[in-house]
Write a structure and sequence with these properties.
about 140 residues; alpha+beta; 4-stranded mixed beta sheet; 3-stranded antiparallel beta sheet; 2 helices; about 30% strand; globular
């Protein structure tokens, strides 16, 4: 696995986290979507996910809003809540358009989730799964 200029390392990862990921994934090729436990020597990572997969009650519509995050072209379901420390990291990696067999697309604290409902790259089944998941979950705004 390689780090490129297109790798998103903006989710609280320290250089030690990145070095551990590179060592863990080594010369892996192809697509990976995996959640790993952090080793004890690495610090916690922030996680902005709220809802049942985090052991919370479903995020009610009254408590949630929709807001465009970063450069996305669709709104995300968000909740006014703090980030929380977790001991897991989710990694999404795979080939890129420049011939690399495996680059780190992104890594973040917490579990993986379905893509958000506004993501137009999904098929009908994925959209249904996404809507069901995000009806109960939201991302922290701070």
């Amino acid at each position: 696995m390689k780090i490129t200029d297109e790798s998103h390392l903006d989710h609280g990862l320290t250089p030690a986290h990145v070095a551990w990921l590179l060592d863990t994934f080594g010369e892996r090729e192809g697509f990976s979507l995996v959640t790993l436990d952090l080793p004890p020597e690495l610090p916690d990572l922030p996680c902005g996910l709220y809802g049942p997969v985090m052991g919370d009650r479903p995020v009610e519509n009254l408590d949630a809003a929709w807001a465009v995050r970063g450069s996305r072209k669709w709104p995300s379901r968000v909740v006014s809540a703090p980030m929380r420390p977790v001991r897991t990291v989710s990694v999404i990696a795979g080939p890129d358009d420049h011939g690399n067999a495996c680059v780190l697309y992104t890594a973040f604290g917490g579990p993986t989730t379905p893509r958000e409902p506004g993501d137009t790259s999904m098929n009908d089944e994925q959209v249904a799964e996404s809507k069901a998941f995000w009806a109960q979950h939201a991302l922290a705004t701070g």
